[in-house]
Amino acid sequence: MDSQSVASQLFAVSLFPYLGLRSPKARQRRSKTAPGLTLFGFYFLLVFVSATIPAGIYAKVHYGTLLSNVDWLHGGAESLLTLTNLFIVLGLRRALRKLEEEGTDESVSEASQDSAEKSYV
Protein backbone atom coordinates (compact mmCIF):
# COMPACT_ATOMS: atom_id res chain seq x y z
CA MET A 1 0.00 0.00 0.00
CA ASP A 2 1.57 3.28 -1.09
CA SER A 3 1.04 6.77 0.30
CA GLN A 4 -1.04 7.89 -2.69
CA SER A 5 -3.68 5.23 -2.15
CA VAL A 6 -3.80 5.93 1.58
CA ALA A 7 -4.21 9.66 0.92
CA SER A 8 -7.01 9.10 -1.60
CA GLN A 9 -8.82 6.75 0.80
CA LEU A 10 -8.54 9.26 3.66
CA PHE A 11 -9.83 11.99 1.39
CA ALA A 12 -12.83 9.88 0.37
CA VAL A 13 -13.64 9.05 4.01
CA SER A 14 -13.39 12.73 4.96
CA LEU A 15 -16.40 13.46 2.76
CA PHE A 16 -18.82 11.83 5.22
CA PRO A 17 -18.57 14.45 8.01
CA TYR A 18 -19.29 17.18 5.48
CA LEU A 19 -22.29 15.31 4.19
CA GLY A 20 -23.51 15.19 7.77
CA LEU A 21 -23.75 18.98 7.69
CA ARG A 22 -26.37 18.68 4.99
CA SER A 23 -28.63 16.25 6.81
CA PRO A 24 -32.06 17.49 7.95
CA LYS A 25 -31.23 16.71 11.58
CA ALA A 26 -28.10 18.86 11.36
CA ARG A 27 -30.19 21.75 10.06
CA GLN A 28 -32.57 21.35 13.01
CA ARG A 29 -29.72 21.28 15.53
CA ARG A 30 -27.87 24.21 14.03
CA SER A 31 -27.36 27.15 16.28
CA LYS A 32 -29.76 30.03 15.86
CA THR A 33 -26.98 32.39 16.87
CA ALA A 34 -24.46 31.30 14.25
CA PRO A 35 -23.94 33.94 11.56
CA GLY A 36 -25.63 33.09 8.29
CA LEU A 37 -22.58 33.85 6.14
CA THR A 38 -20.45 31.61 8.34
CA LEU A 39 -22.93 28.75 7.99
CA PHE A 40 -22.92 29.33 4.24
CA GLY A 41 -19.11 29.07 4.34
CA PHE A 42 -19.29 25.68 6.01
CA TYR A 43 -21.84 24.51 3.45
CA PHE A 44 -19.64 25.91 0.67
CA LEU A 45 -16.94 23.57 1.94
CA LEU A 46 -19.01 20.84 0.30
CA VAL A 47 -18.52 22.60 -3.04
CA PHE A 48 -14.78 22.48 -2.50
CA VAL A 49 -14.86 18.78 -1.64
CA SER A 50 -17.26 17.98 -4.50
CA ALA A 51 -15.08 19.80 -7.03
CA THR A 52 -11.77 18.45 -5.75
CA ILE A 53 -12.69 14.78 -6.15
CA PRO A 54 -13.42 14.97 -9.91
CA ALA A 55 -10.42 17.27 -10.37
CA GLY A 56 -8.20 14.66 -8.70
CA ILE A 57 -9.61 11.92 -10.91
CA TYR A 58 -9.11 14.08 -14.02
CA ALA A 59 -5.49 14.79 -13.03
CA LYS A 60 -4.84 11.07 -12.53
CA VAL A 61 -6.50 9.98 -15.79
CA HIS A 62 -5.29 12.72 -18.14
CA TYR A 63 -1.93 13.62 -16.64
CA GLY A 64 -1.06 10.44 -14.75
CA THR A 65 -0.22 12.34 -11.58
CA LEU A 66 -1.73 13.77 -8.42
CA LEU A 67 -3.96 16.83 -8.35
CA SER A 68 -1.31 18.76 -6.46
CA ASN A 69 1.07 18.35 -9.43
CA VAL A 70 -1.32 19.94 -11.97
CA ASP A 71 -1.10 23.62 -11.19
CA TRP A 72 -4.19 24.89 -12.97
CA LEU A 73 -6.45 22.22 -11.45
CA HIS A 74 -4.93 22.51 -8.01
CA GLY A 75 -5.15 26.30 -8.09
CA GLY A 76 -8.81 26.15 -9.05
CA ALA A 77 -9.60 23.74 -6.25
CA GLU A 78 -7.67 25.79 -3.71
CA SER A 79 -9.50 28.95 -4.79
CA LEU A 80 -12.74 27.26 -3.69
CA LEU A 81 -11.16 26.58 -0.30
CA THR A 82 -10.08 30.22 -0.12
CA LEU A 83 -13.67 31.32 -0.79
CA THR A 84 -14.86 28.97 1.94
CA ASN A 85 -12.45 30.52 4.44
CA LEU A 86 -13.48 34.04 3.40
CA PHE A 87 -17.17 33.31 3.91
CA ILE A 88 -16.51 31.87 7.35
CA VAL A 89 -14.24 34.71 8.49
CA LEU A 90 -16.41 37.50 7.05
CA GLY A 91 -19.50 36.03 8.70
CA LEU A 92 -17.77 35.87 12.07
CA ARG A 93 -16.36 39.36 11.63
CA ARG A 94 -19.79 40.76 10.78
CA ALA A 95 -21.25 39.07 13.87
CA LEU A 96 -18.51 40.48 16.12
CA ARG A 97 -19.05 43.98 14.79
CA LYS A 98 -22.77 43.66 15.37
CA LEU A 99 -22.13 42.57 18.98
CA GLU A 100 -19.74 45.48 19.48
CA GLU A 101 -22.33 47.93 18.14
CA GLU A 102 -25.01 46.48 20.41
CA GLY A 103 -22.62 46.68 23.36
CA THR A 104 -21.82 50.30 22.53
CA ASP A 105 -25.49 51.18 22.23
CA GLU A 106 -26.21 49.56 25.59
CA SER A 107 -23.30 51.38 27.28
CA VAL A 108 -24.45 54.71 25.84
CA SER A 109 -28.01 54.15 27.06
CA GLU A 110 -26.74 53.03 30.50
CA ALA A 111 -24.50 56.09 30.73
CA SER A 112 -27.35 58.40 29.80
CA GLN A 113 -29.59 56.73 32.40
CA ASP A 114 -26.89 57.12 35.04
CA SER A 115 -26.43 60.81 34.24
CA ALA A 116 -30.18 61.36 34.26
CA GLU A 117 -30.42 59.73 37.70
CA LYS A 118 -27.56 61.87 39.03
CA SER A 119 -29.19 65.06 37.81
CA TYR A 120 -32.29 64.31 39.90
CA VAL A 121 -30.26 63.76 43.04
From TrEMBL:
Pfam families noted in UniProt: DUF3593
The keyword Transmembrane belongs to this UniProt entry's keyword annotation: yes
Keyword field: Membrane, Transmembrane, Transmembrane helix
Transmembrane domains' residue ranges: 36-60, 72-92
Matches recorded under InterPro entries: DUF3593 (IPR021995)
Residues covered by region (Disordered): 100-121
Highest taxon of the lineage: Eukaryota
Name of the protein this chain belongs to: Uncharacterized protein
Organism listed in the record: Zea mays
